[in-house]
Design goal:
The longest helix has 15 residues, at 381-395. Helix 3 packs across helix 5 (105-111) and helix 9 (214-225) crosses helix 13. The protein has helices at residues 17-29, 48-55, 73-80, 91-98, 105-111, 125-129, 131-142, 168-179, 214-225, 253-263, 306-312, 330-341, 381-395, and strands at residues 6-11, 33-38, 83-89, 117-121, 146-147, 151-154, 160-164, 189-194, 199-200, 206-207, 229-234, 246-249, 269-272, 279-281, 300-302, 319-326, 345-350, 362-363, 366-369, 372-375, 379-380. The radius of gyration is 26 Å and the shape is elongated. The two termini are 23 Å apart. The chain folds into 2 domains: 6-179, Flavin prenyltransferase-like (Rossmann fold), CATH 3.40.50.1950; 189-395, Rossmann fold, CATH 3.40.50. By secondary structure, the chain is an alpha/beta fold.
Length: 398
């Protein structure tokens, strides 16, 4: 996702500098070119050679290093940088960056960078909570910096509280949100439903299906990476929620209907990928149903048809996409669903096709619209999510 991107990683003199090595390695694995600039104090915690081995680029410390080319190195570096992240950022460097002080290679280079900038403060809790530090961070935000809140816990100094540098994986997610994809959904609100529902028979048992939520979660994540404000209404799954997404957990079909009906009018795009139960037990037993001789019949009641509700209550300009899992007559059934539900697109797949079933990381979709059917090849669910978003944007005239 970061191929062709140059990231300037600024490392300052705090104990958390060792985490910056893992961050540099993770970014290289995502095919970014990582340029590391260290303060002199940072070299007391970790050596420049460590970063050079991880990134394949020379680590910069000295503004006046004569081993660089004849170019003004900090300006040349600023010109080719797509994103700056300073992690860890000491209180001293936060103060210098907030006030435009440029007295070393790092602060001089950053001052010349017009690209997006992220900073991860890491320091003693009292230093972090000091009003002066908070004012400096507010000033950085005013100048367009994204300030990544520190984690809380036991610090190296023995204090307990906020001040820890977030884990490298967390910082990578912040970088991906800014840099991975064009923000063609910026300013748009996207509603996604995902996962199964559980329809309780008694306190022990419920009816459900095999949905894992992977397709809906992929759509939510890709929409977030493209700049959308995303709400994910999710049935019970074992998946880690996508970062920077508002997650609304639900259990039953009725729960999901209520959550969707509360939020759908604010959405510009709706992707109903959840596998919602069509029927729910007509009666719920407050106690465990005991086994008896003979067979058992369970009367079922119809649940709300959420996709029909969305089609009937859509506001002007709203794009609605449903999903259809079939085992036969996929295109015909999905085309009928498109017309009956009054939606813009149906993403159909056949459970019997290899790579398109439940619980796998791939999908084989056919996109059904009023203009026809587009068959997609086998692809990862994130790739499929990207294609779905592309088609939705095109149909919405964005």
């Amino acid at each position: 996702m970061l191929s062709g991107k140059t990231i300037l990683l600024g490392v300052t003199g705090g104990i958390a500098a060792y985490k910056a090595a893992a961050l540099a390695s993770a970014l290289v694995k995502l095919h970014a070119s990582v340029e590391v600039v260290m303060t002199r104090n940072a070299t007391q915690f970790i050596t420049p050679l460590t970063f050079e081995q991880l990134t394949g680029n020379r680590t910069m410390v000295d503004t006046f290093d004569r081993n660089f080319s004849h170019q003004v190195e900090h300006i040349a570096l600023a010109d080719r940088t797509d994103l700056v992240i300073v992690a860890p950022a000491t209180a001293n460097v936060c103060a210098k960056l907030a006030h435009g002080l440029a007295d070393d290679m790092l602060t001089t280079t950053v001052l010349a960078c017009p690209c997006p900038k992220l900073i991860a403060p890491a320091m003693n809790t009292k230093m972090y909570e000091n009003p002066v530090t908070q004012d400096n961070l507010d000033l950085l935000r005013r100048y367009g910096w994204e300030v990544i809140a520190p984690a809380s816990g036991r610090l190296a100094c023995g204090a307990v509280g906020p001040g820890k540098m977030p884990e490298p994986d967390t910082l990578v997610q912040h970088i991906l949100r800014v840099l991975a994809l064009p923000h063609d959904l910026a300013g748009r609100r996207v509603l996604v439903t995902a996962g199964p529902t559980q329809e309780s028979l008694d306190p022990v048992r419920y009816l459900t299906n095999h949905s894992t939520g992977k397709m809906g979660y992929a759509i939510a994540r890709m929409a977030m990476l493209r700049g959308a404000e995303v709400t994910l209404i999710s049935g019970p799954t074992a998946l880690e929620p996508p970062p920077f997404v508002t997650v609304v957990p639900v259990i039953s079909a009725e729960d999901m209907f209520q959550a969707v009906s509360r939020t759908c009018q604010q959405a510009d795009f709706i992707f109903k990928a959840a596998a919602v139960a069509d029927y729910t037990p007509a009666q719920y037993s407050g106690d465990k149903m005991k086994k008896k001789d003979g067979d058992l019949s369970i009367p079922l009641s119809r649940t709300h048809d959420i996709l029909s509700y969305l089609g009937e209550h859509r506001r002007p300009g709203q794009f609605i996409c449903g999903f259809s899992m079939e085992t036969r007559d996929m295109v015909e059934n999905s085309r009928a669903k498109l017309e009956k539900k009054k939606v813009d697109m149906i993403c159909a797949n056949n459970l019997k096709v290899a790579g398109a079933g439940f619980g796998v990381d791939t999908n084989v979709l056919t996109l059904i619209t009023a203009d026809g059917a587009e068959e997609l090849p086998l692809m990862s669910k994130e790739e499929a999510a990207g294609t779905i978003l592309d088609r939705a944007l095109a149909m919405a005239g964005c």
